[in-house]
Amino acid sequence: MVETVKNATTHNNKGDLFSSFNVEDFEVPGGRDEVWRFVSLRRLRGLHNGKFAPQAPAQIAVDGPSEVTVEQVSLDDERVRAAGAPVDRIAAQAWTSSENATLVSVPADAELAEPITITVTGAGADVTTFGTIVVETGTHSSATVLVKYEGSGTHADNVNWVVGEGSRLNAVVDADWELDAVHVGQQSVVVKRDASLRHHVATFGGEVVRITPRVVFEAPGGDAELTGVYFADDGQYIENRLLVDHAVPNCRSNVLYKGALQGDKSSDLPEARTCWVGDVLIRAEAEGTDTYETNRNLVLTDGARADAIPNLEIETGEIAGAGHAATVGRFDDDQLFYLRSRGIREEDATRLIIRGFFNEVLNQIPVESVRDELIARVAGELERNAN
Fold first, then answer.
1. How far does CA 65 lie from the centroid of its chain?
2. Is 369 helix (H, G, I), strand (E, B) or coil?
3. Which of 132, 177, 214, 299 is the most exposed place for a label (fewest CB within 10 A)?
4. What pLDDT was estimated at residue 184?
5. Segments of the chain assigned E as strands
6. Residue 90: C-alpha distances to residues 13, 23, 96, 289, 342 (Å)
7. Whose CA is closest to 172, among 197, 201, 149?
8. Can you give the residue ranges of the SUF system FeS cluster assembly SufBD core domain (predicted)?
């Protein structure tokens, strides 16, 4: 039997990190720890070492079709633990500090025409909240779930997804925080036999936002697509750190994240910064795997920095395909020249190029109102840059 060991020490592979539901089982991370080396620990407001501001109850509201069941259940409930335990100290802190879990269940064979909306609202400045949310979809069901974050404060949570056999789940995570918010969240996903997951993350708000999806295939036939968009200004740090764990044969995954940054050298705020780390693990028994991951970043101004780190860990050669790509750079000058040669002003041409850059991801979001709102946010960011 393979034994896992604690974070920040040598381990077997990216999928075998130490995990626990108890925060005391984790050491306090330091700036040299690999999984924390990009974010400034000082900006996490004590979430990583237990020295956070006074705690208030998490404000979690669920709105959905009548077929959906919403329960407040004990953290010891087997359904809550089905996606596994936290793999870092902040996620474990969120679990340990939660009074209970919000369990959202979609019944078997249900075909939900309307989305389920889960709204998490910050409790305000100088207040810390923790949350645990679990979404489970029954066999052969179909559902769209929107998790929307808003308000201000300091928040850490675990959002777990259990995608039932033969079911189809669209999960949309919208981090629309006020600019003074700090949010660190682990998203653990189990994809069962012949199930389909579409997981979308949008991060435009917040001072520091770090979201870490972890997808594990439980049986053959699983299909997962993970997409994300993010836009950072001065004073913002956005990190997306994900793992797709191909532990069984004949599953497919595709990852596509796109981000943009803009800064101002004269600003007193920290530079705009983003970090994307994409880990894909293909275990020895995962024959027939087909996977690809892509991350693209546009640095729109000086005084901004993006890190892009794709990783493939392959333990078998019997696969359908595997690859990755990542870029950090300015937008395409040839495209700009083409548009300007047709009489379009440089400012308008730049906006058109950037909108087109994001649309490849945004067009995949199934909720029209959310898609339109995110397109409007991109336009708003570009107007801010123009001013």
1. 25
2. helix
3. 299
4. 98
5. 59-63, 69-73, 101-106, 116-121, 128-137, 142-150, 154-163, 168-175, 182-191, 196-203, 208-217, 223-232, 237-246, 252-261, 272-282, 290-299, 304-314, 321-329
6. 21, 8, 10, 32, 52
7. 201
8. 124-357
Question: In degrees, to the nearest 5, what angle opens at C-alpha 89 toward C-alphas 88 and 90?
Answer: 100
**Token duo for residue 16:** 């075998």
**Two tokens at 53?**
């501001």
According to DSSP, the residues that pair with 119 across neighbouring strands are 61, 148
CA distances, 5 to each of 73, 81, 215, 252 (Å): 30, 20, 20, 28
Tokens of 266: 């004269």
For the chain, give the number of residues. Answer: 387
Alpha carbons 375 and 372: distance in angstroms, whole number: 5
Prediction pTM value: 0.93
Are the CB atoms for 221 and 189 separated by under 8 Å? no
pLDDT of residue 32: 87
- Tokens encoding 102: 């919000």
Cβ atoms 129, 99 nearer than 8 A: no
pLDDT in tens, 165-199: 999 999 999 999 999 999 999 999 999 999 999 99
Partners of 281 in the beta sheet?
Answer: 245, 313
DSSP H helix total and E strand total for the chain = 4, 18
Average pLDDT over residues 69-85: 96
> Residue 380: phi, psi to the nearest 5?
-65, -40
Mean pLDDT computed over 13-35: 92
Contacts of 380 (CB under 8 A, 6+ apart): none
SS3 347: helix
Q: Which token pair is 87?
A: 């793999």
Q: Are 5 and 18 in contact (CB under 8 A)?
A: yes
310, 325 Cβ separation under 8 angstroms: yes
Sheet holding 304-314, edge to edge: 69-73, 101-106, 128-137, 154-163, 182-191, 208-217, 237-246, 272-282, 304-314
Whole-number Å distance between alpha carbons of 84 and 161: 10
